[in-house]
Amino acid sequence: MAENQNCARMTRAAAKRKASSMALDENPVSKKRVVLGELPNMSNVVAVPNQERETLKAKTSVNTSKRQMKKALMIPEASVLIESRSVDPQMCEPFASDICAYLREMEGKPKHRPLPDYIEKVQSDLTPHMRAVLVDWLVEVAEEYKLVSDTLYLTISYVDRFLSVKPINRQKLQLVGVSAMLIASKYEEIGPPKVEDFCYITDNTFTKQEVVSMEADILLALQFELGSPTIKTFLRRFTRVAQEDFKDSQLQIEFLCCYLSELSMLDYTCVKYLPSLLSASAVFLARFIIRPKQHPWNQMLEEYTKYKAADLQVCVGIIHDLYLSRRGNTLEAVRNKYKQHKYKCVATMPVSPELPLAFFEDITIRGMA
């Protein structure tokens, strides 16, 4: 009798499990797998507690007042949209303004800056032309090993900062260059070249031990401060704004800005300028080259870069001369690089030999006139 009751209970339990599974099959729970980079900005909250609802209302009120303030100050709404339209998580849209402000503060700190006249004050066996030759060669090395552009910019930054504190003889200049690129590669690259690769690229002029030893000297001289902002750091943000009214030539203006920035690294005179200023100057000149009859600067660019057109005049003039081969005309690595089709042949684009002085007038004054 007891056995029959147990069997009946097991049968009823099995029947319930079967009915439950059938109900689940009829109404399956739909789950969507989400890639981490595709996660939405807002969390999937079903119900918001009263306290959180009040917080949201307060935030909405603050945002509304900010929009009203921007409208009163005549700040273009498009400048806000440029950040919010980004789908690239690396652009850090919610924090872009704060990050940029932090980088602008960091770039001016002495520990992140080379001396503007280190060849005259520190180096006795080097000349500006020797530095230019080294930079031009490092551009070729970066191309040979397919290094990202950030690696190249960091390399030049490390070289200039190291030479600002340590005098060397000219025979060691190439060693400083490859050792700095080794450090920058470790900092930026997923799979950096090996020490042996950098020895090979110098035709084994330097041994592995010499490269490693110089690497240690550079790290100590820089006090391991390796994350300095470069021209490329600011160029990413500035070109996004520069492309807003250049919809038909976005890639062209991006490559042209990169070309002009790399040309500026060749010139020792440009060492004294902040990376953000050089980046803004490259954007100014690139827009002028593509559309010479249109004013290359506007209120939105001024807001994003924090530079007026007049602030850029001297620096733009130097890069313009470099573009026309009036300066550093014997160096060809950068030019040959940007003559390639993959860079839209931007190094072959014609440009007016003169920059109109009217383009460097204050936008507000020009608008009132």
Can you put this structure into words, describing what you see?
The protein is mainly alpha-helical and 369 residues long. It is globular and about 55 Å long. The longest helix is centred in the first third of the chain and has 25 residues, at 2-26. It is 58% helix and 0% strand. Among the domains are: 110-221, Cyclin A, domain 1 (Orthogonal Bundle), CATH 1.10.472.10; 231-368, Cyclin-like (Cyclin A, domain 1), CATH 1.10.472.10. Keywords: Cell cycle, Cell division, Cyclin. Residues 136-220, 233-321 form the Cyclin-like domain.
The quaternary organization reads as single chain
Low-pLDDT sequence parts: 23-49, 55-81
CATH superfamily of the domain at 231-368: Cyclin-like
CATH architecture of the domain at 231-368: Orthogonal Bundle
- Please report the distance between the alpha carbons of the first and last residues: 107 Å
Number of helices: 17
Mean pLDDT across all amino acids: 80
- Name of the level-1 CATH class of the domain at 231-368: Mainly Alpha
Principal-axis shape equals globular
Enter the CATH topology name of the domain at 231-368: Cyclin A, domain 1
The share of residues in helices is 55-70%
The structure class reads mainly alpha
Domain Cyclin-like: 136-220, 233-321
Protein name: Cyclin N-terminal domain-containing protein
Family: Belongs to the cyclin family. Cyclin AB subfamily.
Pfam family, one: Cyclin_N
